[in-house]
Amino acid sequence: MKRLAIFLLLLLGGVGVAFAQTPTAKDKAAVQEVERLERQRFEAQVKKDYAFLEKVFADDLVYTHASGKQNGKTDYIQSIRDGKSQYEKIDVEALNVRAYNNGQAALVNGTITITLPPTADANPNLAHLKYVVVQIKDPKKGWQVVLWQSQKQAK
């Protein structure tokens, strides 16, 4: 939480500067790297690649589901292990990454469609979500998700 609070203070304090300046080379590189990592993270959630998820989720992760339920890193990864959070497929429909602080922080927003396990009547079970992610580049661990927030989207 401390890193998230510091990031938000830096972001709010530098909003005017951030919009007034052109992106640095490090910002541009960060955008490409975070876009790639977002797609890899979705794939890891589907494939249950726990080692990858452990690496890309920060220890102080705040993961807020569209239902409003919140998890920390350990609880969220355990919910995938326990089958409480199941993903058959995650399709990225839109993905927008903005880098800040000379490529050390990134805000991500987008839309995804999650294919969930079929319901009892075998009907397709889809969730259309808008989401926001905050990622911070840790000097030792690389890019890490510190915040996930989603909401259901009508389709």
Automatic annotation (TrEMBL):
<keyword id="KW-0732">Signal</keyword>
<protein>
    <submittedName>
        <fullName>Nuclear transport factor 2 family protein</fullName>
    </submittedName>
</protein>
<dbReference type="InterPro" id="IPR032710">
    <property type="entry name" value="NTF2-like_dom_sf"/>
</dbReference>
<feature type="domain" description="DUF4440">
    <location>
        <begin position="34"/>
        <end position="145"/>
    </location>
</feature>
<dbReference type="Pfam" id="PF14534">
    <property type="entry name" value="DUF4440"/>
</dbReference>
<feature type="signal peptide">
    <location>
        <begin position="1"/>
        <end position="20"/>
    </location>
</feature>
<dbReference type="InterPro" id="IPR027843">
    <property type="entry name" value="DUF4440"/>
</dbReference>
